């Protein structure tokens, strides 16, 4: 199975075989292995496979075991993990390192332990290790769960370097917050930004100012540091073109320093300056701040704000990942004379991305005035507004360390402060980028769509937003008004874990051409579902592009958005919409039945059986432990489901049908509102929204039995679908579907399995309603006249495991 996996990754398997010759392995590898017998007798010993890339200095050792039980065997001759650790340790043996004169110090070495059958899920184990030189220990790379391409293996080591940098950043952030534990958490980021600015080596001598603070602060007393701090910051920012108004704001925010007795009578500030100068700021000059997709500067701010308790979704602060800010600049036709605005700029990430994109465009052009043009970008082509004073100061210092302190960033409320509109009118933005504060309620904080409307009305060419999905299907009247003035071009659903671990928010990016009314008769909107951006969430580093996948994913995304790409109607939809339509792919896409398989139907049958068993045993209302439930069901069901490999279903000749409406499959009914305090205990089962017990809530007596619903298919507000094989009452979160003739349980279970395939379209505040039932279609087998093949459905369920028992 390892061979098959390697072949699927386009490897030449011969490069991994066990024909260990010196020409293949290079003499240094052979020298190590000639004394690496697992018996410890100094004889030769070789792992099961070895892969070598001499040019990239990549070495991968593999130990294979056919039985999963041997994976963790501590006997190095029998165990996969213990064996591969043995071979890894040989390459870092102290004596051999001396003999080889540190030959492997710059090599990228991995040890892989694999056991069982890789082609079968849950019937194999895979572990990947490397050697950490700093700790001199073998470490598990738990995010590597299978063989990867050579490019991905190499990218893994770049990520490890980044991980070391992030570990430094995280440690320093924590250390600085501890030192500032007696300072109000809201003031800490402002103080941090001021300290960082003091350490900035001013590159401009336009005013003959040289910052000598970094050369002398270690000799200063605490009071002298505080005395010099504000003047130094002001001088640096003045040289960088920051107006007096901003300097006055900073003075106000830092006024507490002169009266803070702890800071005035200790070395806290000096220790923080030393930490920043020696551990943090040097990282800003590395590849991580320039070439890497990983935003080390942004990560430092994020970590610091997290430890200070400032950055979280409840406060509306969600920092945008760097690869997304860069993507924004590629989603519009950016010109080198564009003026870019962000009306809630946070730490300035979009302005920095826009600045870099404009500079890159100028540098690649044939212009003869490149230096002047670049200077003009920094001075006149960027505008930001940020209400939160903490984020505002962070933005100023952030842009300073990115090579620009001259951008116009104002500490204004961009929605309500009239000065904002004055600056916007004066600036004349052509492009707008925004990630608005989340969870706006419209009363205390503006809603996301309020920021979008403001941005659209103040950009002459394009505007791009990333916001929660609810922005794109709620506020119908506002969305309709937007399309009267502007044209929606693209909506891209982003991966659900995009902002993890800081926020679990489902979001989408929308691109608008501004100042052009949307024409529903001719204009098409492109909807795309980007399910995966290639980033991996790790415990210490957050989400990173461990396997270097984003570059290709981004390239494919941009190609997909072109008019020449062919929609699949599932992940890519290009369609005309009405002004009242939702701006979300799930409202326009077809259901993906490509993954429909026997397992889906078996699950519906087994869930139904468990529910019926609990109902017959009268234990629906009992709180049971898993062990108690198992004992109840074991005696009732008497059989177990055999483990088997499930078959995919051929739906080629199936046909789509409406749920309700013209030529619909079902008659439609809607439950009645019945809140919990109004329920009267009785004997009629009440179905409400939820997955537990098929939506069963309790038994009631609010209705007469003749006013209740007969057996049928129910769909709740979350699109949970069940077949109820009894008479029941339902609240207003439940939709009941049935024909005049009674559906049997076999056909009912087949239908709900198909309906459940649409469930991914709902959630994140988007609920299933009658309009969805009228619009959505389901795929079913048919007979020769094109009508549903009810006999096939019934027999299919009966022939499944447990099917004959229900």
Q: Can you walk me through this structure?
A:
It contains 27 helices and 25 strands. The model is unreliable at 287-294, 312-316 and 640-645 (pLDDT under 50). 36% of the residues lie in helices and 16% in strands. Strands 8-7-6-9-10-12-11-13-16 form a nine-stranded mixed beta sheet, sandwiched between helices. A five-stranded mixed beta sheet has the order 1-2-3-4-5, with helices on one face. It starts with a helix and ends in an 8-residue tail after the last helix.
Give the percentage of residues in beta strands: 15-25%
Number of helices: 27
C-alpha geometry: globular
Q: Rounded to an integer, what's the Rg over CA atoms?
A: 32 Å
Per DSSP E runs of 2 or more residues, the count of β-strands stands at 25
Mean pLDDT: 86
Helicity level, as a percent range? 25-40%
What labels describe this entry?
806 residues, alpha/beta, 9-stranded mixed beta sheet, 5-stranded mixed beta sheet, 27 helices
Task: Compile the SSE list and pairings.
Blueprint: H1 2-8, H2 22-25, H3 27-33, E1 49-53, E2 58-65, H4 80-90, H5 94-99, E3 108-116, E4 124-132, E5 137-140, H6 150-179, H7 188-198, H8 213-216, H9 222-239, H10 244-253, H11 261-264, H12 268-284, H13 287-290, H14 296-308, H15 322-330, E6 340-342, H16 349-364, H17 370-380, E7 382-385, H18 389-401, E8 408-410, H19 418-427, E9 431-434, H20 448-456, E10 462-468, H21 476-485, E11 487-493, E12 507-513, E13 525-529, E14 536-538, E15 542-544, H22 550-560, E16 572-575, H23 598-616, H24 626-637, E17 655-658, E18 667-670, E19 681-687, E20 696-700, E21 712-716, E22 721-724, E23 729-730, E24 734-738, H25 745-756, H26 770-775, E25 777-780, H27 790-798
Parallel strand pairs: 2-3, 6-7, 6-9, 7-8, 9-10, 11-13, 19-23
Antiparallel strand pairs: 1-2, 3-4, 4-5, 10-12, 11-12, 13-16, 14-15, 17-25, 18-24, 19-20, 21-22, 21-24
Helix pairs in contact: 6-12, 6-14, 7-9, 7-18, 9-10, 15-16, 16-17, 23-24, 23-25, 25-27
